[in-house]
Amino acid sequence: MKNMYEILINALQADELIAQVTILNGSNVGEKLLLWPDGRKYGGLGSEKLEKQIIEKAKELFQRQETRKLEFELDEGRISIFIQVYPPSPRMIVVGAVHIAVPLTELGKTMGFRTIVVDARSAFATRERFPHVDEIIVKWPSEALEALHPDEGTYVAILSHDAKFDIPALQVPVQSKAKYVGVLASKHTYSILHEALRENGVSEALLGKVHTPIGIKKLGSRGPEGIAFSVMAEMIAEMRGVEIT
Amino acid sequence: MRDVMENISNWREEGKQIVLATVVKAYGSALRPIGSKMAISSAGDISGSVSGGCVESAVYEEAQSVLANSEPRLVEYGIADETAWSVGLTCGGTIEVFLELLD
User: What domain range is B63 assigned to?
Assistant: First the structure.
């Protein structure tokens, strides 16, 4: 039989949504159960009745991706249960294996993001330059982004600084559910991208959510590392729903 | 868990026993959210944290008893708690930590 800890770790590495239930007191203290949103389970708590109640409760917690300690009334008394929901890591997709991409993905890693670098130029998108990232994709950015299916947990920074890459690259996440889309560009350069996307039929409402110039300017940080820091801060603000004016 | 799992894997390969401490409840201005982990090995290695730094040494001590008798335990650290004062819970919060030996 496979060890429960190893099953949990494998699920976390595969970025599955999973919950671990632990009994915190009473005669079955330390007993554990792993639960998946599709109804799969592993392990047991020593009580069929208790498991049923917990599986019901876990459905809500999965929905809200929330971890909680709960009290349950059993025949033998009150017991405390800890249900830890492990949401999949947020994803940071950086388009353009430029200098800023190096510190940005390092910061992303530190902040618990799964980090992905996309660039069509194999000379830049190398393991040597990005030893810390989870994935390097050498492909035309728009194709790579389409295959990555940006969702509510995805944060995209477009840094290639080259209209022939940026126009098609921006078009994908801006029309996706991505939580954050930022573009490194001056006001003038961005106006060209903006115009090109509008001509391609992307609505103003969608374009309105693009963060550009990228990063929190107010921080006043400079240089590739400083800009990376301000982009990271902007992503976290977006994640937490904090308005930065 | 993600922040401690690499260290835990290494320690397991080295044949060390491991105690996992988890924040299961946090009130007030606790610095680490519930679910945060700290791992302690039988060789004295530490990974992760359960607070901003104020109760880690107390948790480390508690882990020694778990290593000795293999029994899980639920411990509360807070401003009203003598132990917590003695280790300096400066954040003003209260946390409950569950410690258990990893299988």
Answer: 5-101
Sheet hosting strand A210-211, strand order edge to edge: A135-138, A114-119, A91-95, A154-158, A180-183, A210-211
The DSSP element (H or E) to which A13 belongs, if any, is helix A4-13
ipTM: 0.88
CATH class, range A91-240: alpha beta
Measure A190 CA to nearest chain B CA, in Å: 37
CA distance A183 to A200: 18
Q: What is the pLDDT of residues A84-95, one digit of tens each?
A: 999 999 999 999
Cβ contact B103–A12 (<8 Å): no
User: Which of B2, B74, B96 lies nearest to residue A112, judging by beta carbons?
Assistant: B2
CB interface of B with A, residues 47-76, below 8 Å: 72, 74
Contact A118, A93 (CB under 8 A): yes
Q: Where are the alpha helices (DSSP H) in A78-222?
A: 101-110, 141-148, 163-174, 187-199, 204-207
Quote the mean pLDDT of chain A. Answer: 93
User: What is the number of domains present in chain B?
Assistant: 1
Domain boundaries of chain A, sorted by first residue: 4-86, 91-240
- The residue to which tokens 């300017």 are assigned: A217
Give the residue from chain A lying closest to B96, CA to CA.
A69
Rounded to whole angstroms, how far apart are CA atoms A54 and A43? 13
